[in-house]
Design goal:
This protein has one helix at 3-14, and strands at 79-82, 86-89, 123-125, 131-133, 144-148, 155-159, 173-177, 180-185, 188-192, 198-201, 207-212, 216-221, 226-230, 245-252, 255-260, 264-269, 274-278, 297-302, 309-314, 318-325, 328-335, 351-356, 362-367, 371-376, 381-385, 402-407, 413-418, 423-427, 432-435, 443-446, 451-456, 462-467, 470-475. By secondary structure, it is mostly beta strands. It is built from 1 helix and 33 strands. The protein folds into 2 domains: 1-53, no CATH class; 173-475, Methylamine Dehydrogenase, Chain H (7 Propeller), CATH 2.130.10. The strands form 10 sheets. A 4-stranded antiparallel β-sheet has the order 7-8-9-10, with no helix packed on it. Strands 11-12-13-14 form a 4-stranded antiparallel β-sheet, with no helix packed on it. Strand 31 and strand 32 (462-467) form a beta hairpin.
């Protein structure tokens, strides 16, 4: 008889085949069968059966890789396997695996990769190679301002009126003033006196923004070049003379945004510096002459030395802008102040140099004829200045000029546009509201929740907005849902 089989039979009688209690049993195979096949199956592991045995470092019940336990039951780099079966990633070992968004070799926070291997706001992490702060360099917000570290994507774009999208690159924008309106669609510009009478302008230019003064226009193209045309009596076109222009005339390059008042203009360049030009008789250019008086100019002149301007709004003869210094978003106003429209607590006028207004968390600003409205970071709306026609939205209580920002209700707002005798805005639910002329508090004009921009004329009766990617315009005495869609020329 085979010697090995004989030993096995003896083992059956004394221990039972499959027993592992006897180190001398050469045929233990891990089951309780009463017969042995003469093979020492305890040394023959089966990877993928869910039982860690023999030389297996792990066995999670399959032979798939990428889950911590490889197809040959070895622990994969960057994982640890409890009891050889349940595998988890090891955050902080410098190996990005599994659900880890990053792994920079430590579990410290504040370096871009958190203690649980998630990418922290404001950072970009290239796998396990470490993380770098995402900056707003390169102008990722094509038609807006960039706020570093405000979202999980690393930065947030605050779009200029009429632009949407993660990078403010959606192509529809509308502006209204006096009896004129302009619309940009897919880089093409058209202007006219009514929503059904628009004519193409500057067809050789690909436009990205447009703004209208009382009798002049300025726009910025996709290469950040500034063009202006129209009335130029006070040098408001910025082309170094006072001759009118019928066609868009290039001013200069590297502009981020521009806003026009009655007969002056202000804009922010790509480096964050603020420039104004045109009529400065009320201090609206923000620049003093050598004698300390208000200065007019036919070319853009820098306002102060700051290079952290992110927003500018030119009213009839006063202007306001937002500066961002670190986490502080401060509001500054200058120019005519006869109705307290600068928000400084008094009505002395003119104020030539920009002066800081109360609070430090402003996100949007709109200067009208003689009043101003702004939105703070919480979404709360504030208005101040001349209260006639109810355009401040503060109700019917008797009061004179409001010289400091006053909160309008408790709702949250996305957009606001202060005009001549009216103000319009879009709430955070996408509803359109207007007030002034026909109402003294914000009054809902539309039940639609898809309004995303509004523009109210600072020198006229027009208001325009965008709903469902369609532009609409209406007059200041309208109190119903706008239905007059703007027709873009073929």
């Amino acid at each position: 008889m085979n010697k090995k089989l004989l030993i096995c039979l003896v083992s059956i009688l004394s221990h039972g085949c499959g027993s592992s209690t006897s180190p001398a049993d050469p045929c233990t195979d891990g089951d309780d069968q009463t017969l042995c096949d003469g093979k020492n199956n305890s040394d023959e592991t089966v990877c993928g059966d869910g039982v860690k045995a023999g030389t297996e470092a792990c066995d999670d019940g399959d032979t798939d890789g990428g889950d911590g336990c490889s197809g040959i039951c070895e622990i994969e780099n960057g994982w640890s396997c409890s009891a050889g079966q349940s595998c988890v990633t090891t955050c902080g070992d410098g190996v990005k695996v599994g659900t880890e968004a990053c792994d920079d070799g430590d579990t410290d926070g504040g370096d871009g990769c958190s203690g649980i291997c998630e990418i922290e706001n404001g950072w970009s992490c290239d796998g396990q190679q470490g993380c770098v702060i995402i900056s707003c360099a390169g102008n990722p917000c094509q038609n807006g301002t960039c706020d570093n570290g405000a979202s999980s994507s690393g930065y947030t774009c605050t779009c200029e009126d009429g632009w949407i999208g993660a990078q403010c690159d959606v192509y529809l924008m509308i502006q209204a003033n006096y009896s004129a309106m302009c619309l940009i669609k897919n880089g093409k510009l058209a202007c006219g006196s009514s929503s059904s009478d628009l004519s193409s302008i500057g067809t050789s230019v690909t436009w990205r923004s447009i703004t209208i003064g009382y009798n002049h226009y300025c726009g910025i193209d996709n290469d950040n070049s500034l063009y202006c045309w129209g009335s130029n009596t006070y040098g408001q076109l910025g082309v170094a003379d006072t001759y009118d222009r019928q066609e868009p005339t290039k001013v200069s390059d590297e502009w981020r945004m521009v806003s026009l008042g009655s007969a002056y203009s202000c804009g922010i360049k790509a480096d964050g510096k603020l420039f104004c030009w045109g009529d400065g008789s009320s201090g609206q250019t923000g620049i003093e002459d050598e004698g300390g008086g208000a200065l007019s100019s036919s070319t853009p002149l820098q306002v102060g030395a700051a290079s952290d301007w992110t927003a500018i709004s030119a009213g009839e003869s006063h202007a306001c802008g937002i500066r961002v210094d670190g986490t502080n978003r401060t509001l500054w106003c200058w120019g005519s102040n006869g109705s307290g429209q600068l928000g400084l607590g008094f009505t002395a006028t003119p104020i030539i140099r920009p002066q800081q207004v109360n609070y430090e968390d402003w996100t949007a600003i709109s200067a009208g004829r003689d009043h101003t409205c702004g939105i703070r970071e919480s979404g709360t709306l504030y208005c101040w200045g001349k209260p006639d026609n109810g355009k401040l939205g503060l109700g019917t209580a008797p009061f004179g000029d409001t010289t400091m920002p006053v909160q309008v209700g408790n709702d949250a707002w996305l957009f606001v546009s202060a005009g001549e005798n009216r103000t319009c805005g879009v709430r955070d639910n996408g509803n359109l509201y207007c007030w002034g002329v026909s109402s003294v508090i914000p009054t809902q004009l539309s039940t639609a929740e898809t309004w995303r921009a509004v523009s109210t004329a600072t020198g006229g009766e027009n208001s325009c907005g965008i709903k469902d990617a369609t532009p609409y315009c209406w007059t200041s005495n309208s109190s119903s849902d706008p239905t007059s869609a703007v027709v873009f020329p073929p």
